[in-house]
Each structure stands twice: as C-alpha cells, then as structure tokens.
Amino acid sequence: MKFETTPAFDGDWGRLTEAERALFRAVVRGEFHPACERHRTQPTAPWPKKLRVKDVEGARGIWEMTWSFSGPDGRATFEWIVIENEPAIRWRRIGGHSIFGDP
To answer: Are the CB atoms for 89 and 78 separated by under 8 Å?
Structure first.
C-alpha cells in the first residue's frame, strides 16, 4: 500500500528515538499494512484490537492507531487518500497523546 507523510509527521518523526522508529516500522509492516489491505477488500473486517484503530473525535476523516502501549506512549494519526487511483494512507502525526491537539 502506498503512503505519504505530512510535514507535521516528518517533524514528529525526527523527534522519535531510533528504537521508537524501529518499533513503528515493525508494527506497520507486520500488522497495520496487512490490516489496511484487508480493509481495502473487506471494509467491514475488524482492525486488529492490538492497534486500537478508531476515528479521532472532532476530526472528521482522521483515524488514530496505537503502536506502543509501553513507555513512551506511541500513537499515529492517518487518513485515507488516493495515490495513482489506488487507496493509500497519509500519515499525519506520530508521537504521544499530545498529537491529538492537532491531529
């Protein structure tokens, strides 16, 4: 699945530790990406409970995903977009709970 990032995500990414980046990459590759592929073909298929994917309150069209429950808290926001006529993900923010101030 294709994706792009926002400048806010890129700035947030730069503040993560290398260990946090590695964990995020592993979760996206191992769990989030396969779940997105399922969602594309089966929109009613549930997201993995471990990822806690849900709508962000008060931000229509923006979703959140929890990629780490242990310190530090790891969350990311995203939205569905289209790239080259295919569903894709735009990563908007990444970090702790504070990203919800401007998801």
So the answer is: yes
How large is the average pLDDT for residues 93-98?
84
Placement of tokens 């069209």 in the chain: 61
The values of phi and psi at residue 53, to 5°, are -75, 130
Please state whether the peptide bond connecting residue 103 to the residue before it is cis, i.e. omega within 30 degrees of 0. no
Tell whether the model's pLDDT for residue 1 goes beyond 90.
no
Of the candidates 65, 73, 75, the one whose C-alpha atom is nearest the C-alpha of residue 99 is 75
User: H/E element holding 76?
Assistant: strand 74-83
Cβ proximity of 38 and 45 under 8 Å: yes
**Tens-place pLDDT, residues 15-30:** 999 999 999 999 999 9
How confident is the model over 56-73, as a mean pLDDT? 86
3 state SS of 95: strand
